[in-house]
Specification:
Layout (H helix, E strand, L loop, with lengths): L1 E4 L7 E2 H17 L8 H8 L17 H31 L3 H10 L13 H17 L3 E3 L6 E5 L2 E9 L6 H18 L6 E7 L16 H18 L1 H4 L7 E15 L4 E13 L4 H15 L7
Parallel strand pairs: 5-6, 6-7
Antiparallel strand pairs: 1-8, 2-8, 3-4, 4-5, 7-8
Helix pairs in contact: 1-3, 2-3, 3-5, 4-5
Length: 307
Amino acid sequence: MIEIETDYKDKIFESGELLKEYEAACEWVSSLGIDYRPTRFKSYLDDTKLLFHEAAKGVDEYSTDEEFEEVARRYLNANREINELLRIANALKRIGDNYSFLEQLKKTATGNAGRLINHKDQSRNFSFELDVASRFIFAGFEVDLSGAADLRVLINGKYLYVECKRVTSEKQLEKRVKDANQQLLRRLKRDHSKQSRGLVAVEVSHLVDFDKNIWGYKTGEHMWNASAEIINSFVKNNEEKLSKGSTKRLLGVLAQITFPSFISNGIDLKVATARASSLFMYENSQSDSAYLHEFWEKLGNQVDDYK
């Protein structure tokens, strides 16, 4: 087994830089016929006013530390969700009119605004599929969400089928990966080309205890280093589970976390969100390994750019 780590530090955006872009993205979503105001999309705009806003309570106005910590978590969650939704919206703008993407986008608007309130929230599953699709779109590849798999991506003349799983329970990790690999094998059997391959993508933020990490790094670089260490350690500690169902024509597992945190240099307090990923490769032929390396650098080394 080989682990590939991206050597690029994903750009970390402070919350203040995102709000105008996010409001514009919400208006763009509305122009597609999806009124964002009654959805969780609007809730995140409201939650960004809980801290660092003229109408927000001061720290000493909260009756208990627990009450303030809950507000802080809601604020961080809003920033994390805004980053994800902006990434999706800007990817979809690149491909123009696409019915299957629009249907997926509608599904992402449903559900509860609190990511950790309902682990079974289906809207997050659809969001993760679109988030993974955005990686391939920004890498310059053609993506199809019409049902051949969660994603079907055309890369250098070959189809890559991707099954996306948002894993919310440690006990379910092995099963979800195995199920995804079995789904991929069924897809590949129906594909007429022996050159097509499969890849699993898992979102494992629920399996990481962020509470001890969210209360402050000195710089964005310190934060990114921490997020990279978290996801790389997760992959190394779960190699056996991530290998379940691996066989020929299956390339491996892309594992991802989205990591929000406060950043403080002792004077200023800022908020940022980093997306970190690590690719766990299965034992592949030399040609399959070369194929994976062809697109992983473009897939992993991405910078969110909302300007």
